[in-house]
Amino acid sequence: xxxxxxxxxxxxxxxxxxxxxxxxxxxxxxxxxxxxxxxxxxxxxxxxxxxxxxxxxxxxxxxxxxxxxxxxxxxxxxxxxxxxxxxxxxxxxxxxxxxxxxxxxxxxxxxxxxxxxxxxxxxxxxxxxxxxxxxxxxxxxxxxxxxxxxxxxxxxxxxxxxxxxxxxxxxxxxxxxxxxxxxxxxxxxxxxxxxxxxxxxxxxxxxxxx
Length: 210
Description:
This protein is of the alpha/beta class. The protein folds into two domains: 129 residues, no CATH class; 68 residues, no CATH class. It has nine helices and five strands. A five-stranded mixed β-sheet has the order 3-2-1-4-5. Strand 1 and strand 2 form a beta hairpin.
């Protein structure tokens, strides 16, 4: 069954006029780094195919060169023509994105050395950067201002009246609670939409802005 799946994917891949690779590096419960490689391609008749290509364990270091070698370990058995590679998407890890020795840069240079002249786009996920920003950003003051409006009945009623008067899309804020951690993103999104109205309300109430 495994051989059949492999042969089927290899046959479909041979018909791609263009394809891109998606790379994601993570560590399993045994502390072994696993590189997941996905492929998406399109044929001449615009038939798209997206498949999981392979898991490659990185048992030692996880440098850009190691990841690049692992990609070749996936690509070569499939006989993929790298002259048709048009895009590489990564998880944004430093070993992927470093300009000189990152896996994507090394893969591009490999294609150039082989005489392939097609442009290769590189897209990097920002989830890692967002996570780091969320850890370092101090949003306590912002959340305390929002909660002060909602926790005081008078403030809350007056704020709702203001929202009705200015006729905005939303007529209220979202309360943030540590237990309901998912509400933080929703609350901040609503804050961005109503930042002018919130500033107006704080001035009217002579409250200190965050």
